[in-house]
Amino acid sequence: MMMALPNVFLKDTTDQIVERLAHLQHDTKPLWGKMNAPQLLAHLNVTYDLAYERIPLKNNFIMSWMLKTFVKKFVVNEVPYKHNLRTSPVFLVADERDFEKEKQVFIENIMATQEKGYGFFDGKTSVSFGPLSGTEWNNMFYKHIDHHFMQFGI
Hints:
The chain is an all-alpha fold. The chain contains 5 helices and 2 strands. It has one domain. It has helices at residues 11-21, 37-51, 61-76, 99-121, 134-151, and strands at 125-126, 130-131.
């Protein structure tokens, strides 16, 4: 399985993510946007909460159709996100969070994803986008992490 983006299912990629994460401090300021560093980590963790069905999310028929028709291709392709895009309400983190706790949860999430591997995700249904290939899951995970790491200059 050849992927254009780094492969989150490989240890080397997970190690690189953790290496970049080590440069994020609780008081690191974003280059754009409103989140602080603890909120960023909580925001990234929402992706995994949804992927692992830890938080319930039910979209009505119209919302599901819109997400699959208009948003999915944008989220799972290999093109980087633009700055200051609006996010889904479920991803908004406005309250204060514990940096070290969110960091530890994020590391656990990326490690679990790497350990479960491509095969676990290939064909797995996303609550927002329906069944995705392992490559689409990879793109969604990696693009989101990389976008926000760049937002915080790491």
